[in-house]
Write a structure and sequence with these properties.
With 258 residues, the chain is α/β, with parallel strands linked by helices. Helix content is 32%, strand content 26%. A hairpin with a 4-residue loop joins β1 and β2. α6 packs parallel to α7.
Length: 258
């Protein structure tokens, strides 16, 4: 199979965002109708630097998932712009946006979203095969080794534990060498011990593989694995703080919005 990756239109009017995997510039998102608008994000500007691990926290309805969805191209902002590398997402058609998500964004969710009829290797390489792209077997082996699944590549999901299935999902998110890995409550369905192993793996993905990870979580312990924590309240950034302990994060959440 040969690669058919698309060439995305670039924003030629904007200074380079080479330092950032993804940049949100004055992004607002409103749901509902004009008569009954429901604001989710309010003029949020933030960049996620390449090779960084960022956690996003906030109370229910603060805009955490909307921020992730806009950053990943799953949702279009009502205003403002989102840059993935040097590509402005608002300039893409729906087909181009789908291709960009497939090629340049990795996703890890609470539900593993694996296909039970496929092996570990087949699940991991599914994005490549859907894109009719060549599988780099050396890279595949290095990813499977990094997530601790090299010896399980021929097994099917029902032969794996929950933690191992989430590792398959992480490997699948990494196989395209994405600009950004978006993780939405990835430990929510796991016990404490297994959840911490997954968080350690995400930390290692950043430190050893140089990936950029954006984690949405309600768990201060999970957020403490990140380089920085972005706190949202009422659709706005309330604070962005570096290298916090779980206790410091929990304390900051207690006073969020004050």
């Amino acid at each position: 199979m040969k690669s058919t990756r698309s060439s995305y239109p670039r924003d030629v009017t904007t200074p380079t965002t080479a330092a950032h995997a993804v940049l949100l510039d004055s992004v607002s998102k409103t749901y509902g109708s004009k008569r009954n608008p429901v604001p989710a994000l309010d003029r949020v500007t933030i960049g996620f630097r390449r090779g960084s691990f960022t956690a996003v926290m906030g109370p229910s309805g603060s805009g955490k998932s909307t921020l992730l969805n806009c950053a990943a191209g799953l949702d279009r902002p009502s205003s403002g712009r989102v840059m993935v590398g040097d590509t402005e997402l608002s300039r893409l058609s729906e087909t181009e946006l789908t291709e960009l998500r497939r090629d340049r964004i990795g996703f890890v969710f609470q539900a593993y979203n694996l296909l039970g009829s496929l092996t570990v290797e087949q699940n991991v390489t599914l994005p490549l095969r859907l894109a009719d792209a060549t599988v780099d077997h050396a890279h595949l082996t290095s990813i499977l080794t990094a997530v601790g699944l090299a010896e399980h590549r021929g097994k099917r999901p029902n032969q794996l534990s929950g933690g191992q299935q989430q590792r398959v999902a992480i490997a699948r998110a990494l196989v395209n060498r994405p600009h950004l890995v978006c993780a939405d409550e990835p430990t929510g369905a796991l016990d404490i011990r297994t959840g911490r192993q997954i968080l350690e793996l995400l930390r290692d993905v950043v430190d050893r593989l140089g990936q950029t990870v954006l984690l949405v979580t309600h768990d201060p312990v999970a957020a403490s694995y990140a380089d920085s924590v972005v706190f949202l309240a009422d659709g706005r950034i309330a604070a962005e703080l570096d290298r916090l302990s779980a206790e410091q994060i929990a304390e900051r959440m207690t006073h969020l919005g004050e």
